[in-house]
Design brief:
Elements (H helix, E strand, L loop, with lengths): L7 H7 L7 H4 L16 H18 L3 E4 L5 H4 L5 E5 L5 E4 L1 H8 L9
Antiparallel strand pairs: 1-3, 2-3
Length: 112
């Protein structure tokens, strides 16, 4: 999610049923780029995270990474974390640096 490009009203309407991110990430998002892949093997998860990080290098913003309960402690001290939340589900908001550091952890997997 990033600031400055797009329309806040449209973003708000599309994400009306979700938590207000502005207090968490420090800006009001105006657009979202979703990177979605069918991840079955560990390499699929890593490639998806690294592709997302590369896109973020170009467009900026933060990644919203939904987490399993057992991943919360793994990502807690990684670099590039902007914010964490636990309600309604565990999630971390982070930079491209965060995604790369997380993907480098043993047993890394994205939430399906």
């Amino acid at each position: 999610m990033g600031p400055g490009v797009g329309d806040e009203a449209i973003f708000d309407a599309e994400h009306a049923d979700e938590v207000d991110r502005q207090p968490l990430i420090g800006f009001t998002p105006t657009h979202a780029v979703d990177v979605i892949a069918f991840c079955n093997r560990p390499v699929d998860h890593v490639v998806t995270a690294l592709l997302t990080a590369a896109i973020m290098d170009i467009i900026g913003g933060v990644a919203n990474a939904e987490l399993r309960d057992d991943q919360v402690s793994i990502v807690a001290d990684l670099p590039g974390i902007v914010a964490k939340m636990t309600d309604p589900w565990p999630a971390a908001y982070g930079s491209a640096e965060f995604l790369r550091a997380w993907a480098d952890q043993p047993g890394f997997r994205l939430l399906k």
